[in-house]
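Fold it.
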Amino acid sequence: MVIVGTAIIILGYIVLNKYSNLLVIWAFILFSFEIDQDKFLRYDLFVRLSVILTAVLMNVLGVTGDSSVTFVGERLVYSFGFRQKNIFGMYLMSAIIEYLILSRKKQSHNFFIGLGATLAVYWLSDSFGATITLFMFTFLSVFINKHTKEIMFGGVVLFPTLSIGSFIISVMLDVNSRLFLMLNSLFTGRPYLLRIIYNEYSKNTVFGQQLPILSENDTAYFTNRHQLYADNQYMYDIMAYGWIGLTLHFFLYITAVIKASYKKNLKILVWIIVMCIYGIVEKKILTIELIAPLMLAFAIENQDFDEKV
């Protein structure tokens, strides 16, 4: 009854605000009870690898035209057929995490595989978010068996901490302060871009609003970009879905953390937590490409896991 009631509230909120894309995402997550975890991961991994290999091959052969190219120091980083390098890094990161979960009984090997894969993702895509997320997954996976309660508690407080922190940095800090300039540089101009979007377009922070296509006219000297991207899941939630939407997202996240922890599905627990970290620099957590950990958390109702080795 609780799930049905929650689903009705969410449905009403989404319908009233015309968020049809969000309706699809929540439906996928809330009604994933019958999914078999390993079978789902094997299929999903196959699909991800197929997408990556197809995109790279077609790009190398010149079928899809030129890649997005970024200078990193003295070397070039290509997007290999994806819209930009961070998307390429996201697909690599997701595929590697799924492989590490499927081979979870080989803990000692997985640590070194994870570290090697982290370096490979960094070198191939130069994606800050994907690199940090994959490293954190590899690192936390080593300690999750002996420190489950501590990591779960950290996961519980992580979402509100990152949400409030993102809002304070992007909206409230003085743009000329040393702290803001340091953080803005660390996150490659994201905080200032988020401030522009919030001040110019976010008029309803309770229920949110449809954000318009952003123009090139608002580019600032704080960044080298020529377009505005709301690359922070928490600020995007506030602007697009309002504080109510952010609260619903938190409820979904905390429920998934508790479910995965209660059923001792520890690798899924770690995956959910590190994706929360990924949300600092990307806004794709609630997209079809990245909702797998949340779906699997809701799918473990009738499955038993014992991942201790």
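The mean pLDDT is 82.
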